[in-house]
Amino acid sequence: MAAGALLGSGVYADMSKHFEGFTEQQKYDLVLQLLQNMELPHLRRLYSEMQQLLSFDLMTHLPTELSESILSYLNAPSLSTCALCSRKWRQMTNSNTLWYNLCVQKDYVRFVDLVSSDPNGSSGSSQVQRSHRLTSPPANKQHLSPGPSPPPPCKWKRVYLQSHALEVHWRRGRYSVAPLLRAHRLPVTSISYEDDLLVSASRDNTVRVWNMNSLASLHVLEGHTDAVNDVVMKDGLIVTGCADGVVRVFDSRSGQCLHALHGHTGSVEHVVCNGRSIVSTGTDWSGNTHARTCTHTHA
């Protein structure tokens, strides 16, 4: 008798009725005997169907806030291991909230500027880019079934992984010391860097721009009439704070002075860039550092 005919006849109904009347042990014994009489291909098909019935992933059924609260108790290695379970678990663990808290615990927030804003881009430091992964080695893609590419790691996960790599390399001595950069005549007061450029300020009234690949001095930013106390490089601009009371803005590639910002009556001690605004602090009026703060907006 064909399977379709069996299911459509009263035989199946009678079998189901009798089966419901069995005890749990009788049900178990009957099913076990049936399975032992089945052929291997049928057992494999039955096994795949039983997996879906028996598996239940509680985390994927919880609200996002609750699942993040549970995952927040895990450390970074455990969180990375969870990401290997499935696509859904990788998505759950790829949370800026979770990884930011881990960065705060390890004091990695200070390295955020080392990580590119582009998940597929290169970092400002080639040494940091050689990340020491917390996850398992990549699997052989030849044995993977085709499917959508996983989303890139979130911002704070990238910060954690690359900062962890930097810490491990430093602790194990996996770094090289670059040759000394000598050009200033007086002590260096401040340095800043972006991409492959480093800028140094000095009490000799100059600021120098260095190429970190060739270690060559590209530009000497002159025009300062006193010691340069602070320098910041961001988004292709170099901002200097000078003891002559002037904040100057230079182009990092050409070395050209774009703006000379006046406002302080005393020495400029510190400068900070925030978008299109520059915040500078100086020794105005009373002669005490930070006695006055000026905010400049550049084009």
Nearest-angstrom radius of gyration? 32 Å
Got a strand count? 11
**What is the tally of helical segments?**
11
Q: How much of the sequence is in beta strands?
A: 15-25%
What gap, in angstroms, lies between the N and C termini?
Answer: 86 Å
Describe the global form. Answer: rod-shaped
* SSE ordering: HHHHHHHHHHHEEEEEEEEEEE
**Unreliable residue stretches:** 121-139, 286-292
Strand order of the largest sheet: 1-2-3-4
pLDDT averaged over residues: 81
Briefly note the structural class of the backbone.
Answer: alpha+beta
Helix content: 25-40%
Biggest sheet details:
4 strands, antiparallel
Give an overview in words.
This protein has about 300 residues and is an alpha+beta fold. Helices cover about 35% and strands about 25% of the residues. The chain is built from eleven helices and eleven strands. Strands 1-2-3-4 form a four-stranded antiparallel sheet, with no helix packed on it. Strands 5-6-7-8 form a four-stranded antiparallel sheet, with no helix packed on it. A hairpin with a 2-residue loop joins β9 (about 270-275) and β10. The protein is rod-shaped. The model is unreliable at about 120-140 and about 285-290 (pLDDT under 50).
